[in-house]
Amino acid sequence: MKITITVIFLTIFTIGNAQQQPIERFVLPARDLDHNGCVHSIRVKSFHFYENKNKPDTIYREYLAIYKDKEVIKRESYTQNDSIPWQEIFYDKLGRITKVSRKNYDGKKFQIVQYFSNNSEYPNSTNFYFDDKKNESYINTFLDTLVSKQEHYMRDTLRTYSKFKYDENNRLIEHIKVNTKNGFGITIAKSITGTEDIKHLNPNDSITFSYSTQGDILIRKEYDKGELEEIIKTITNNQCETKIVQEYGWGYYNNKIITKKFVDSTKVIRYSFNRNQDTTSVLIEVRKPDKITSDWSQNGRNSKSEIIIKTENDSLGNWIKKTKIRNGILEDKILREINYCR
Fold first, then answer.
1. pTM
2. What's the pLDDT tens digit per position in 126-177?
């Protein structure tokens, strides 16, 4: 039992402590691509219905996922009634993004290009181009497949860099952020100082992590400049996986999120607290394949919500239509066109 728990512990926190990748600011994770069998492509059309200034309105999203050898190699995003994608995302054989290409509303071209030289999920470099001119880049230095240093350049000038330290189990234990003399800050203009422009650089930062166990409970603590920011507790058994996140900010404990994952459902309970540690709100949400229920209370007020999920499948058992109805009103509709291998 202890061996099993240790393996889970290392997996959860090695992945959980991964550095943020700059490209994640521009690319949303692929959704609604679950399927059985061999496919060439899946086209997803998503409609979200809502009220805008007391009038019905719709948010439309469409993308096409193209497969090769059972892996997505390209994803195209479309606007409604447009046959030319406004964004293209390319992947390598390991599922890593190598290129993002899009045209902005002003007609200017924007690209992100990533280069890899090993099997790490992190690239050697991430480069941002505007109208074919490199504007920004992030350069990684590796220790085996782990990032030990990341440098941030803007127009070939080093602005900031980060250093990462790990323990013997490859878990992140320290993240040091350094702002260089050409880094970010606030500039007070000459018109105010009376003599010259004065730049005040943002201070350097240090985030540290510690790991421990209490019986079957796995614990990770995060500190920012020595101040406790977050505690994550994980318990895994044959019935469910429980994750408890305690968030701290502005000098006090302000949120607690409990997530219980069962085989066929997920239950989330979120508590919010004030400085006196009084409970100010509670949200209880239960997610099942065909239903999502929410019960929310705040300062004596209560509200409930129920989302019914209806699904239609094709002859091969893959869903091609999914609707979400909140409290009797249609909120989301998702359509899929699946092109199967022959």
1. 0.85
2. 999 999 999 999 999 999 999 999 999 999 999 999 999 999 999 999 999 9
Burial class (CB in 10 A: 0-12, 13-18, 19+), 172: buried
Residue 19 within any structural domain of the chain: no
Q: In this structure, is residue 236 part of a structural domain?
A: yes
Write out the two tokens for 144.
């085996």
**pLDDT value for 342:** 85
Number of domains within the chain? 1
**Residue 266's domain spans which residues?**
209-288
Cα 300–309–335 angle (5° rounding)? 130
113 near 127, Cβ under 8 Å? yes
Spatial separation of the C-alpha atoms in residues 45 and 334, rounded to whole Å: 6
The single residue listed with the structure tokens 């690319």 is 27
Integer Cα distance of 175 and 156 in angstroms: 24
Strand partners, 256: 246, 271
- Whether residue 167 lies inside any domain: the answer is no
Mean pLDDT (whole number) for 11-25 = 61
**What would the mean pLDDT of 279-291 be, rounded to a whole number?**
97
**105, pLDDT greater than 80:** no
Question: φ, ψ for residue 295 (rounded to 5)?
Answer: -130, 115
Residue 298 CA, chain-centre distance (Å), reads 28
Q: What is the pLDDT of residues 174-219, one digit of tens each?
A: 999 999 998 887 877 666 766 776 778 888 999 999 999 999 999 9
47 in Cβ contact with 336 (< 8 Å): no
CA terminus-to-terminus distance, the chain: 46
Residue 178 bridge partners (DSSP):
161
DSSP 3-state of 115? strand
What mean pLDDT is predicted for residues 274-295? 97
Please report whether residue 251 resides in a domain: yes
The first and second tokens of residue 137, run together, are: 């880049």
Measured at the CA of 192, the angle between CA 191 and CA 198, to 5 degrees, comes to 95
